[in-house]
Design a protein that fits this description.
Elements (H helix, E strand, L loop, with lengths): L1 H4 L13 H4 L3 H18 L8 E8 L10 E6 L2 H19 L15 H17 L20 H10 L4 H11 L3 E6 L2 E2 L3 E2 L9 H7 L3
Parallel strand pairs: 1-3
Antiparallel strand pairs: 1-2, 3-4, 3-5
Protein name: Reverse transcriptase domain-containing protein
Pfam family, one: RVT_1
């Protein structure tokens, strides 16, 4: 199940193992990873090399002389992504049942188009009845970079996520570090203490619980 949910054609992480390499012989890969994942599950600790990411810049729009015209993505271990997918499959149903109906982002069979349609109806009714309507749009700039992890662990427990899963997720962020790749050069590693990496499959799901 988790194998089919990992996208191919993505850049490999620091260990240089692409997703396609894991799919060459799924039976053998599954057997090897099962041993590793079971060890992580029992000890509630992820491998140290899973805590390293390569930060690369992607140009977006405008002149390339401005930092704001780039976005950063972090390349992480593909086996780590696969393990995170296993955790996500275990926890998302129980959490999803407790989220507000108004929350559509990062949820199965839901879309922001539902909210757009609802807002459109409200605007039409307001116009028809000549009533006042106040709309407030909030843009969470660099949202995943601003999440307080301690609060997030509390929220996961509040939503009924098993303590073992919370401990594993928490451990995966303890000692998290990155190296910047630029022009073929790699910097020394530095610790990352405040964000939820966008490359992590769990990040958007966890942010939606806030």
């Amino acid at each position: 199940m988790a194998f089919r949910q990992i996208k191919s054609g993505k850049a490999a992480g620091p260990e240089n193992i692409p997703a396609e390499a894991l799919e060459v012989d799924v039976a053998v890969t599954a057997k090897i990873l099962h041993i590793l994942f079971s060890k992580i599950w029992d000890k509630e600790q992820v491998p140290t090399d899973w805590k390293e990411g390569l930060l690369v810049k992607i140009p977006t729009k405008g002149g390339h002389s401005k930092c704001d015209n780039y976005r950063g993505i972090t390349l992480v271990s593909i086996p780590r992504k696969l393990f995170n997918r296993v955790l996500l499959n275990r926890m998302k149903d129980s959490m999803d049942a407790q989220l507000r109906d108004q929350q559509a982002g990062f949820r199965k069979d839901r879309s922001s188009t539902d909210q757009i349609a609802t807002l459109w109806i409200v605007v039409e009714q307001s116009t028809e009845w000549n009533s006042s309507l106040y709309i407030n749009f909030i843009d969470y700039e660099e949202a995943l970079d601003s999440v307080d992890r301690t609060t997030l662990w509390k929220l996961l427990r509040h939503y009924g996520v098993p303590e073992k899963i919370v401990n594993i997720i928490r451990n995966s962020y303890d000692g998290l570090n990155c190296k910047i790749v630029n022009g073929g050069q790699v910097t020394n590693s530095f610790e990352v203490q405040t964000c939820l990496g966008q490359s992590c499959l769990l990040s958007h799901f966890r942010f939606s619980s806030l």
